[in-house]
Amino acid sequence: MDIRQPFTFEFLGLDAKEAYSEKDLEKSLLAHLEEFLLELGKGFCFEARQKRIIIDDEYYFADLVFYHRILHCNVICELKNDEFKHEYLGQLNAYVSYYKENEMHDGDNPPVGILLCTKKGEKMVEYAIAGMSNQLFVSTYMLQLPNKESLEKFLISQLENSL
Question: pTM for the complete prediction?
Answer without folding.
Answer: 0.70
